[in-house]
Specification:
Strand content: 35-45%
Low-confidence stretches: none
CATH architecture: 4-Layer Sandwich
Mean pLDDT: 95
Oligomer: single chain
Structural class: mainly beta
CATH superfamily: Metallo-dependent phosphatases
Order of helices and strands: EEHEHEEEEEEEE
Number of helices: 2
């Protein structure tokens, strides 16, 4: 498990499907960590994101050719355990019992923030090719004291 301290902002993305828009690169500039919840599409996407900030990424259902990506990752950020997976329906643990306070997933292309039993469930939506007539979205996470502050942001293109 990787651990990051003193991170003021995280960028949460998913479902790039081989496309990293210039607007996404600009939007993520200044974050201290990027979490990619799968369906990366091409290794070059991760390389471009790593030029912005350290990246934690998981394997999505279109990423079989990307060696080295795990189906799940756990990372500690400012003392919060974050569990990352692509499809929330495959979650095989009870986050609050495992000490996890944030679950980040993708797959549906629908941005969503929920909180259940003290655990944030965040799907940043998709920043890749537009699908299902859904908006292009990503999420940011900052901290007010020790409390995560999560926002979904819609991009014009």
């Amino acid at each position: 498990m990787r651990s990051f301290e003193s991170i003021s902002a995280l960028g949460l993305v998913s479902d790039t499907h081989g496309l990293l828009r210039d607007s996404v690169r600009v939007a993520l500039s200044g974050v201290g960590l990027i979490i990619h919840a799968g369906d990366v599409g091409r290794r070059s996407i991760l390389e471009q994101l790593e030029a912005i900030a350290p990246v934690v990424a998981v394997c999505g259902n279109v990423d079989s050719g990307l060696a080295g990506l795990s189906p799940t990752e756990t990372v500690s950020v400012n003392g919060h355990l974050i569990y990352v997976l692509h499809n929330l329906e495959t979650l095989d643990l009870v986050p609050e019992k495992a000490g996890i306070s944030i679950v980040v997933s993708g797959h549906s292309h629908r941005a969503r923030i929920d909180r259940k039993n003290g655990v944030y469930y965040i799907n940043p939506g998709s920043v890749g090719p537009r699908r299902f007539q859904l908006p292009i979205t990503y999420a940011t996470m900052g901290f007010r004291g020790n409390e995560p502050i999560v926002k979904v942001i819609e991009l014009d293109q």
